[in-house]
TrEMBL record:
Protein name: L,D-transpeptidase family protein
Family annotation (Pfam families): YkuD
Active site positions, chain numbering: H132 (proton donor/acceptor), C143 (nucleophile)
PROSITE patterns tied to this protein: LD_TPASE (PS52029)
Lineage: Bacteria, Pseudomonadati, Pseudomonadota, Alphaproteobacteria, Acetobacterales
Domain of life: Bacteria
Organism: Asaia lannensis NBRC 102526
Domain annotation L,D-TPase catalytic: ranges: 1-167
Length: 167
């Protein structure tokens, strides 16, 4: 299965699943090959699917061959480039700067961790790049967002990741 993301304008993008176009939302900073922490850009390149998080109190467990983990209120992700846990899932409370995965909004009710800056982790290269549900703001902080039906369809498929292109 081929999954390609192409940038349209601003935070709007088109995800092609076997050449079928579906709407997607990306980072407010567009697509960048030189992704860095805090630039609000979606990284250029192949982003493999790592595993899935979901809020069991809000949505049903997704059907997927990927590893699936129900989120808990103490789940977080370290986005502090100076800390040894940078770009890794953490347990809260945590001493470094971090993002809480158990959110008030619905963005991470269904969320796929994408392989970006994780093998090896390089400080300041960007963290917490996910495939998640659309934010109310209309742009992500560098992630890719799809509606829940499209996200479920994608992770139920044999796709291994998303090829992000700037063309």
């Amino acid at each position: 299965m081929t999954v390609i993301l192409r940038h349209r304008t601003g935070p709007l993008a088109t995800l092609f699943i076997n050449q079928e176009p579906v709407p997607a939302i990306i980072g407010a900073g567009g697509i960048r090959g030189d992704k860095s922490e805090g630039d609000h850009a979606t990284p250029l390149g192949f982003l493999p699917f790592r595993h899935v998080f979901y809020r069991a109190d809000r949505v049903s467990r997704p059907a997927t061959a990927l590893r699936v983990e129900a989120l808990a209120p103490n789940d977080g992700w370290c986005d502090d480039p100076a800390h040894r846990d940078y770009n890794r899932q953490i347990t809260l409370p945590h001493p470094a700067r971090h993002e809480t995965l158990w959110r008030e909004d619905n963005c991470y009710d269904l969320c796929v961790v994408l392989g970006w800056n994780d093998d090896p982790v390089i400080p300041h290269r960007g963290s917490a790049i996910f495939l998640h549900l659309p934010p109310a703001s209309g742009a992500t902080e560098g992630c890719i967002a799809l509606t829940e039906p499209l996200l479920r369809r994608l992770i139920a498929s044999p796709a291994q990741g998303i090829e992000v292109r700037a063309d």
